[in-house]
Amino acid sequence: MSDSLKSLLKASVLGLSVAFIVGCATVAEEDELTIEEVNAKADEALATANEARDIALDARGTANDARSRANRNSSRIDDLNEKIDRMFERTMQK
């Protein structure tokens, strides 16, 4: 996994965790979240980050596949252009 993707995931999880902690500190006493609730929300945030990572990895695989196909097609086009040029040369020599 690329370093930028790892950094993005870590920053997302850290940001969500800090948001939950700050949110818990600023609510009224009767609305305070329990440690279990905070942990559940952190787990939910981690699951969301993991899902985002999986989607990003899938997208990278799709992009790599598309690049491979494009390179293969480019090579075929080059071969076809050479063939057309040879045919044109033969026609011009007649």
Please give a handful of descriptors for the protein shown:
94 residues, mainly alpha, 0% strand
DSSP summary, beta strand count: 0
Radius of gyration: 27 Å
The SSE string, one letter per element, is HH
Number of domains: 1
Low-confidence residue ranges: none
N-end to C-end Cα span = 59 Å
Average pLDDT level: 83
Query: With helices defined by DSSP (H or I, 4 residues minimum), what is the helix count?
Result: 2
Largest sheet: none
Chain oligomer state: single chain
Morphology: rod-shaped
Helix and strand composition category = mainly alpha
> In percent terms, what proportion of residues is strand?
under 5%
Residue share in helix: over 70%
Please provide a brief summary of the model.
It is built from two helices and no strands. It is mainly α and 94 residues long. It is rod-shaped and about 90 Å long.
Model description:
By secondary structure, this protein is an all-alpha fold. It has one domain (3-93). It is 88% helix and 0% strand. The chain is built from 2 helices and no strands. The longest helix has 59 residues, at 35-93. It starts with a helix and ends with a helix.
